[in-house]
Design a protein that fits this description.
alpha/beta; 8 helices; elongated
Length: 602
């Protein structure tokens, strides 16, 4: 144990004074300790030009505005007795940790889990002395900015269990000074950008009255003071984004206390060009790819037009794997592999990859199609081994591939092509071999769904009809069995009437109920008759649909060479009627010949 003669010292920095004492005696600084004899608080300000001693806590002398002022200076001088370090036997099992926030305006004491407090009525004073000792070594003021520390320690000393280890940490505030309020720099919030990490999108579509953009106004900070008495100055706010404005034709501006908010007036994409925020329903870009744009999705309710005008002939205008969902899409370039494109109206100026999937709610126009297209109507310059499902299809030149539609017109048919229609196949020229032209209404998705729906409706109506008929027959037989009894009741009522006596009430009630049941049975019979008519109408409608193949026609104004197969598929039985015509036959269709169906060539 290190020993030296204790001595008195005046200090303004206790830790520094203790370190100097240890250095002078060539001992470790951990071996030096101190007792506080007295403390003096000195103030200098615009009001007190010379250092002035104050005994009251500074927060009771000055208001908050002065405490935050740069003019106010605070320091303390301490009279201490420097002595060899000795363990405080009373608090040897109490572990206290002092921490503060970054600006040192809030100081916390933590009594650590496992601490054991002594059983003494002076516990609050002992803890206060130890807390002050540690505060002073850390450079914090004492006697000022302590708030309700004394009351807190007294309350703690009354509720704490002595000689019992703490089961968890206890935290108390031991000092709090006017905390500096830092300035808020101006900022922008791009609300229109999606936050999903899985989805990268070029520009996010917005709806009317959607908050799309927000400018956070700068706010000045307020200087503060730390619990060591130091003035804390805060910097002025930065202004980087005040130049952002809105195109008020498409954006509504709301000025609030803390921000300026920009709301969309229309559906569209948000544009940020030269710090002018607007909403546009037409966007033009050079390319759509995962690297540069990501997918483009405007949703189903937004009237958005996107023009992709690629100037690089080496790369696809729509890159591999990109998804696009907009109202109107005009692509002046190629569509890459594994893309998914959906639009109300779709135009592709060059070609589509064979693994691409395209959907046009209304019309699609494609120069060279190799992919998979679903549309209401489609106009194709060249179909090369691609697939098309639509209501109406017009193709200038078909090089293989498959078309399934209600009506199909092909200007030039080459080889190995499959055309399936429900109503019309019209070919203007055939320049190849092994083509298949088929009238098969069941291949049309809407027709197939309609006929399946009718089948289910017919099945349900049959069940209802048979159930009603069975119940009606049962009641009819029961009603018929009661007829002889009803005649007896009628006879008794007639005899009583002739004898001028009152007929039996029960007889009258039974006769009335019998007539009532008869009326109900008439209504039930009418209901069954209506159900039968309804059933017959469904059956007739279904039968008409079963004859849909008779309405389909194949037209060709040229000369068949025997290599093109023409087929008609029976909707009801799926039986195929096929031939490979030769010569000039302008129209081919299926007709009835007695009980048989035959292909008619004209």
């Amino acid at each position: 144990m290190v020993t030296f003669t204790p001595f008195i010292k005046i200090s303004v920095n206790i830790t520094q004074t203790l370190n100097e004492a240890a250095k002078d005696r060539k001992i470790a600084k951990e071996d030096v300790d101190f007792d506080l004899i007295s403390v003096v608080t000195l103030i200098r300000s615009s009001e007190y030009s010379e250092w002035t001693i104050f005994k009251e806590p500074v927060e009771k002398i000055f208001d908050e505005q002065v405490l935050r002022s740069e003019d106010l200076q605070i320091r303390q001088e301490y009279k201490i007795k420097i002595k060899p370090y000795e363990i405080n036997e009373q608090l040897k099992d109490v572990k206290i940790e002092i921490i503060s926030n970054k600006t040192k305006s809030k100081v916390i004491a933590i009594f650590k889990q496992g601490s054991i407090f002594p059983c003494t009525k002076d516990l609050a004073k002992l803890l206060k002395k130890e807390i002050n000792r540690q505060k002073l070594k850390l450079g914090f003021l004492i006697l000022s900015f302590e708030g309700n520390l004394n009351a807190t320690l007294i309350k703690l000393s009354k509720v704490i269990k002595c000689n019992t280890p703490l089961t968890k940490d206890i935290r108390i505030s031991i000092a709090e000074s006017p905390e500096p309020i830092f300035a808020i720099d101006d900022a922008i919030i791009l609300h229109y950008l999606k936050t999903e990490k899985q989805k990268k999108s070029l520009i996010e579509a917005v709806e009317p009255d959607e908050l799309i953009f927000e400018y956070i106004k700068p706010k000045k900070g307020i200087d503060g003071r730390s619990c060591n008495g130091e003035y804390v100055m805060v910097s002025q706010p930065q202004r980087k984004f005040a130049h952002y404005k809105a195109n008020e034709t498409t954006v509504r501006v709301v000025d609030t206390e803390n921000s300026i908010q920009y709301y969309a007036k229309i559906d569209g994409y948000v544009k940020n060009i030269d710090a002018i925020i607007s909403v546009s329903q037409e966007v033009s870009i050079e390319t759509a790819s995962f690297r540069y744009t990501g997918s483009i999705d405007s949703g189903n309710k937004k009237n958005i037009s996107v023009n992709i005008e690629s100037t690089d002939t080496k790369d696809d205008a729509v890159g591999s794997g990109v998804n696009i969902d907009v109202e109107h899409l005009n692509i002046k370039g190629t569509v890459g592999s594994y893309t998914k494109v959906r639009a109300n109206d779709l135009s592709i100026g060059q070609q589509t990859h064979r693994s691409s999937h395209l959907e046009a709610v209304e019309h699609a126009q494609i120069h060279l199609h190799r992919g998979n297209l679903k549309a209401k109507t489609a106009t194709i310059d060249i179909l090369e081994n691609g697939t098309i499902q639509a209501d109406d299809v017009y193709v200038k030149k078909m090089l293989g591939g498959e078309i399934i539609a209600k009506r199909v017109i092909v200007e030039e048919l080459t080889s190995n092509a499959t055309v399936i229609a429900s109503e019309l196949i019209e070919i203007h020229a055939i320049s190849g071999e092994h083509n298949q032209l088929t009238i098969n209404p069941k291949k049309i998705e809407t027709f197939y769904e309609a006929i399946e729906s009718l089948k289910q409706e017919l099945k349900a109506e049959k069940t209802i009809f048979l159930s009603l008929k069975k119940a009606h027959l049962q009641k009819f037989l029961e009603h018929k069995e009661q007829l002889n009894r009803m005649k007896v009741f009628q006879k008794r009522i007639l005899e009583a009437t002739k004898a001028s006596t009152a007929p039996n009430k029960i007889d009258i009630i039974r006769i009335k109920q019998y007539k009532k049941d008869g009326e109900a049975m008439k209504l039930a019979a009418e209901n069954i008759e209506n159900e039968e008519k309804k059933l017959s109408q469904i059956e007739q409608k279904l039968e008409n649909m079963y004859e849909a193949e008779f309405h389909g026609k194949i037209k060709y104004t040229g000369n068949y060479d025997g290599t093109t197969q023409v087929s008609f598929i029976d909707v009801k039985t799926s039986q195929s009627y096929s031939l490979s015509p030769q010569g000039i036959h302008q129209e081919i269709f299926l007709k009835k010949d007695g009980e048989y169906k035959v292909i008619n060539i004209q």
